Amino acid sequence: xxxxxIGFVGxxxxxRALLGGLTASGVGxxxxxxxxPDEVARAQLARDLGVxxxxxxxxxxEACDVVVLAVKPQVLGEVARxxxxxxxxxxxxxxxxxxxxxxxxxxxxxxxxxxxxAMPNTPALVGSGVAGLYARPGVDEAGRETAERIxxxxxxxxxxxxxxxxxxxxxxxxxxxxxxxxxxxxMEAAAGELGLDAATARLLTVETAFGAAKLALEAHEPxxxxxxxxxxxxxxxxxxxxxxxxxxxxxxxxxxxAAARDRARELAxxxxx
Length: 273
Prior knowledge:
Blueprint: E1 6-9, H1 13-24, E2 32-35, H2 39-49, E3 52-54, H3 57-63, E4 66-69, H4 73-81, E5 92-95, H5 102-108, E6 115-119, E7 129-135, H6 141-152, E8 155-159, H7 165-174, H8 176-193, H9 198-218, H10 223-229, H11 236-246, H12 249-272
Parallel strand pairs: 1-2, 1-4, 2-3, 4-5, 5-6, 7-8
Antiparallel strand pairs: 6-7
Helix pairs in contact: 7-12, 8-9
C-alpha cells in the first residue's frame, strides 16, 4: 500500500473489517480516519484500532486521499449530498453501499468522477471476503490499484468492466453466503434425521464445507472435475447426487441467482428514485 490517507464515512461492521484488515496489512493507523455519528462506536474504533475518529464527515474528506462511503444505502444520498468535494477533485471515492449506482452517486457528490463502486460480502468480516469492483471512466490505473488493495485487505477482489455486471456479482457472491448457509442448515437437519446429534451434525457439515471450499480454491480443475473425482459409479455419492439432480438443483440455482440479480436492479431503481 502507498502512503495514501484512507478515510471511512460510516464506522459499521464492514468499515471496521476493512480498517482492521488495512492495519493488519501494514497501513499505519495514523493514516486511517473514520467518521460516525455514534460516540460509542467512534470511541471503540479509536481504542481498538488507533485510528482517527470523528463525527464530522467533511473532516474525513479534507484529511484523506481516499474516502470509502460505508453507510447504509438508504442514507447514502443524504450523506453524499452533505459532502463538499469541490476543492478535492483528486480524492478517490469508493462506495460499498449495496445497490446504489455510480451515476446518481456522482450527481449527489456534485459531479465527482473519481468513483469506484464495490460489492463486498460478509465473509470479509473474517478476512475471507470477495468483492466485485467497477470504476468510472474518471478513475486512472493508479486509482484502480488503490481501490483493489483496500478491498484485498479482507479477501479477494475482481473487476467488472460494466456496472450492470455488479448485479450479477451481487447475486453470486453478495448474496451467496446465504445460499451456502441454507445448504449447511439443510444438511445439519438431514444428519439429525439420520440419527446424529446436533453438535456432531454441525461439526461434520461445517468442516466438510470448509474442506470442499479449500480444495476447490487450491485446485486447478473446475468444480465439475472435483465432483467427479469423489463420485464412484454406483456408490453412495452417486446415489445422493442422483436425488439432487432429479430435484433440478441446477435449475433452482439458475432461477435463484436470476431472481437475486433482478431484485438488485429493482432496489437500485428504488434508491435512485
